[in-house]
Amino acid sequence: MRRTLVRTRILRTLLIIFIAWNLIELHLTLRRISEVDIIYREQPQRNERIYIASVNWNSEWILRTHWSQALVELAWKLGPENVYISIYESGSYDNTKDALRELDMELDRLQIPHSITLSPVTHEDEMAATPGEGWIETPRGHMELRRIPYLARTRNRSLQPLEELAKQGITFDKVLFLNDVVFTPNDVFELLDTNDGSYAAACSMDFSKPPNYYDTFALRDASGNEAIMSTWPFFRNAVSRHAVKNLSPVPVQSCWNGMVAMPAAPFTAKHPLRFRGIPDSLASSHLEASECCLIHADNPLSVQDGIYMNPLVRVGYSPTAYVAVNPIMNWLSARSILQGLWVNRIRRWTTSTWLKDKLAQRRIDRWAALSPENKEPARLCIINEMQVLHAQGWDHL
């Protein structure tokens, strides 16, 4: 009888401790969000020159409903003398070209420096070309065009005016890569000021179907791991996880996520930083890596200045998604916080990346053994995937 009572008291005490622990952590998280997650900034904190680069494909709806107006407002607040906008449109089959022509006229009217390139080359045209670099033989038994080298080329085309301007002595402090997302100028100002403006890259967070995070392909935590879950608090690594819980700049090894700010200097150096894919011979082993991860692995500033994801900057791929992650009150509910904390813990305690990492590493090692020239430094970016272009987008094989 006495043992039963002692056991009952111990269990009751443990239960009380467990409940108190959860309530305290919940309270601290909610208080931190309510204290920090309010952005009043309406002007940039420092006088910087910003090169804005964007690639558009089938973006008519977001351009007309939000993006073009937000971009013009952003350029005006930064100051037309402090910006250059470079947009590359890559063979859309909706009316993206017409929407960009309208934007072009508006930027001309406001005398905002810009370049908008409308490419007539569609996915079908790309796929009809003679196979060469960026093509691999797929399990379907024929040569197909890889998605990532194609995307890398389009992103690099948005950087061509930057190189030409540099030759004329026109330079910039930062490059802002801007996806087809819903954003406000305040979001950009907050992003540019990440870690007091000191970084090799600063990324927003992006959402398509909240609360699920969108761009997990390029995201790697401070240990180089993929996100352990698509919802808050996202990360396996303790440093990254604690930072996102505190809404402070999150140290990561790679991110992209809708908007990215990077110092311009590496892009205009003697050997300029550019987007790329992994070698075709490596991709043939059913491996792939995002060009938006590889750019950070190749950036000479990444190690010394750090890469940060800013949890205060949350963009969406639709107005509904944007509003969901930028409400008037806390963007995280008590339920989502408690659920996120425990799902994250259980996954960290019960799962490992060892088997997945070992599989990819074995394929990389086998490829590297074939030739002394077979070297790929960006191991953290490589995953077990194969992605190829098709007429309406791309396939995962």
Automatic annotation (TrEMBL):
Keyword terms, alphabetized: Membrane, Transmembrane, Transmembrane helix
Keyword field contains Membrane: yes
Segments traversing the membrane: 12-30
UniProt protein name: CAZyme family GT69
Species, as recorded: Penicillium angulare
